Structure formats: structure tokens, C-alpha cells
């Protein structure tokens, strides 16, 4: 998995980088077919003090790109909410992949109904 972390009006410190990598381990534990990951962290200079810290992620899996964004007062809280939302999307994507595999009708076992007719 390729991981790119970038910041806008923010220096990405090793502590932030390690925090994001630790949180992404939970995602790769659920779904290990992740190709590429781009994390974008930003601080907006808004007049109101709430939700100034923003975190976005683009997670590329085979055939799809999952995009999640979150905002909070604290950058670590924004990353936590981001990973929770991403985890739900990854689990949903994984269940959709598993639900599409089905047994063909002609391969189903015969219950004897055809023999009685």
C-alpha cells in the first residue's frame, strides 16, 4: 500500500504521520486489497473557531476509490472521525464484494421436485 500524507497550512510532523499510520492499520486489518492511500490534512482560517481542522482521505481499492472527509476542532479528533467513517465504508465495500458471489441455479441441488413431475 502506498501512503501519501500532505498538509495545507500545516507541517506534517512525524507524530501526526505515525498516528495516521496506526489508524490505517485497522483498515488494512479488515481489507488488505488497498492499492493507494492519499491523506490530506488542512487547517482552515475560518472566523469561527469550530471545525477548523480538516482531514480527507482517498483510498484506492481495486475498481473503486473511497473518499471520506471530516472536520473538527482538534486535528486528532478529525483523524479519528475520518478513520471511523472510512472503516464503515470499507466494511460496506467488502460486504458488497462478498454478496455478489452466488451459486448458479443449474448448480443448486435438486430437491426431488423435478423427479415427481
UniProtKB/TrEMBL annotation:
UniProt cross-references to InterPro entries, sorted A to Z: HPF/YfiA_ribosome-assoc (IPR050574), RHF-like (IPR036567), RHF/RaiA (IPR003489)
Biased composition (Basic and acidic residues): 97-110
First and last residue of the signal peptide: none
Keyword ATP-binding: no
Domain of life where this protein originates: Bacteria
Pfam family, one: Ribosomal_S30AE
Positions of the UniProt region annotated as Disordered: 97-117
Keywords recorded for this protein, A-Z: Translation regulation
PANTHER family named among the record's database cross-references: 30S RIBOSOMAL PROTEIN
Complexes and interactors: Associates exclusively with 100S ribosomes, which are dimers of 70S ribosomes.
Name of the protein in question: Ribosome hibernation promoting factor
Gene name of this polypeptide: raiA
